[in-house]
Specification:
alpha/beta, six-stranded parallel β-sheet, two-stranded antiparallel sheet, transmembrane helix, NAD
């Protein structure tokens, strides 16, 4: 049976890797998702029916399958009912649940370790993972520290990272749905750093205390072979002091505070980056759970999520011209939220009506569409694809320019357009699209704002200064569809709207696109 469980974990790990690889291409993404989900199902069933500890298998099947049933029903209903505009909120909510799971695992395992008997089996995992075991199998991570500090360290890492991810994701969820407003105060960076330092100091103190207590026990304690039950007298020492418990739950409280403080000031176009970062935190926290339970498939999944999220965060930071350090101390977007570089007088703008816009696009040689959050709000992706096909039937080349942080989460626009079956080949990344702007006759901006704001290049006082943008102003003509002249998510004026080559086409994106389709059909 252990052999079958190992095989189940191996299948799960391989399917995660294959699924992630297939997710990189829209043509195979759906199949990749199903393959990874299938691997997860095999790993879960294998754990439930094949896992053994001390010769005993899991029990409480009623609780286990009850929880699986409730979670599955909630997940399926949420996925079916969620609107595309609410997708970033759902991602944040689910990400927060992952962080909460890692946090609860650490709390349960800490209580198990500090207040009852436990086994030390992490050495077995490391033995198999890095090949440092001896032939007798007496390798023990605790030996490296003189006591089981290693297991406490992993519990603390899972607690801190999982809690920060949970608290931060809940704030991000509230900000995305408008229930939580941006908040910052003078010196918040220093407070954030102080809280972070307090977490590190308390963690070091806890680990040192664990080390001291185990080594001062009767007969001393130096190391144990894998799967050793700790002596009662040593467990009792921890129970009597209460210091470790106080430190542990103090770290938990500080992590909640840091997660909240870290995300509260973030606003504007920075939210996609923070969501990506929180997602990577959840992956790392899950990997800590894999270490704790000696579970390779949990470890593999956590590492894949954590590393993929980290790489994506770094790439998005580069796309935003931000530093990862600023993200980590919560200064990201704070000055934007505070209103720096806000509204200033720009002059007059001019409007264009539906008929004229249709004529301009119909007789253009090349049209570039820039999708934004307004397109998602209007649920206009399908009619946008219809307009694109109609123009191409009339000989117009049409492509989409995708900014890496367009929308409210990483890849938001890619998912939105994929839902409407827009060919992936038509989606151009920012660098490619910018290179083609000078040869583009018409750019149609649909509900995007901050990602096309020239202030990012021209105004050093702007909160988004330095952020790479889609340089739509280089095209021969720009048509901007918005509901009104209100500033975008970052709360700053867009000088693009007042430039001579720009014309404003006001109205709901779906309604405007439907009217454009009707007009183009007559031309």
């Amino acid at each position: 049976m252990p052999g079958l469980l190992t095989l189940a974990y191996l299948i799960g790990s391989i399917t995660f890797i294959v699924g992630l690889k297939m997710l990189s291409n829209p043509a195979t993404a759906r199949k990749g998702n199903l393959i990874a989900a299938g691997g997860m199902f095999i790993a879960i069933i294998g754990t439930i029916f094949l896992y053994e500890e001390g010769g005993e298998r899991l029990h409480n099947y009623g609780w286990i399958f009850g929880g699986l049933f409730i979670g599955s029903v909630v997940g399926v209903l949420a996925a079916k009912k969620v609107k595309m505009t609410a997708m970033p909120e759902m991602v944040s909510l689910f990400n927060g649940m992952g962080g909460a799971c890692a946090m609860l695992i650490s709390i349960v395992e800490f209580d198990h370790l500090a207040n009852g008997h436990t086994t030390i089996n992490i050495g077995e995992f490391i033995k198999s993972a890095i090949g440092q075991a001896t032939a007798t199998g007496d390798f023990n991570i605790a030996e490296s520290f003189g006591n089981p500090v290693g297991k406490y360290l992993i519990i603390l890492l899972g607690l801190i990272i999982g809690t920060v991810s949970f608290a931060g994701s809940m704030i991000a969820w509230g900000k995305l749905n408008g229930k939580v407003k941006d908040f910052s105060f003078n010196g918040q960076h220093i407070v954030n750093l102080a809280v972070l330092a307090a977490i590190v100091i308390a963690s070091a103190w806890l680990l040192y205390d664990v080390h001291q207590q185990f080594n001062s026990g009767e007969g001393g304690w130096t190391s144990y072979p894998p799967n050793t039950v700790l002596p009662d007298i040593q467990i009792q020492q921890l129970r009597e002091t209460g210091l470790i418990n106080a430190l542990f739950y103090g770290i938990l409280a500080l992590s909640v505070v840091y997660g909240v403080m870290f995300v509260m000031p973030i606003g504007g176009a920075d939210m996609p980056v923070v969501i990506s970062l929180l997602n990577s935190f959840t992956g790392v926290a899950a990997a800590c759970g894999g270490f704790l339970y000696d579970n390779p498939v949990m470890l593999t999944g956590g590492i894949l999520v954590g590393s993929a999220g980290t790489i994506l965060t770094i790439l998005m930071c580069k796309a935003m011209n931000r530093s990862l350090k600023n993200v980590l101390i919560g200064s990201f977007g704070a000055h934007a939220a505070a209103g720096g570089g806000g509204v200033k007088e720009q002059g007059n703008y001019k409007e264009i009506n539906i008929a004229d816009a249709a004529v301009v696009m119909r007789y253009a040689s090349k049209v570039m569409i820039v999708p934004g959050y307004g397109l998602a709000v209007a649920q206009a992706q399908h009619v946008c694809h219809e307009l694109e096909k109609l123009l191409e039937e009339k000989g117009v080349e049409v492509n989409y320019a995708i900014h890496p942080v367009a929308g409210r989460m990483p890849g938001h626009m890619n998912v939105l357009l994929a839902e409407a079956d827009v060919p992936y080949e038509k989606l151009e990344e920012m660098e490619t699209a910018n290179a083609a702007m000078a040869n583009t006759d018409v750019v149609l901006v649909l509900g995007a704002n901050d990602v096309v704001n020239p202030a990012a290049k021209n105004d050093p006082a702007s909160p988004i200064y330095g952020m790479p943008i889609l340089e739509v102003e280089l095209a021969k003509m720009v048509i901007v569809n918005k509901r009104s002249m209100k500033p975008g998510y970052a709360g700053i004026e867009n000088e693009l709207f007042f430039q001579p080559k720009t014309s404003m086409l006001f109205g709901d994106a779906k309604s405007v696109l439907q009217q454009l389709v009707a007009e183009v059909k007559t031309l």
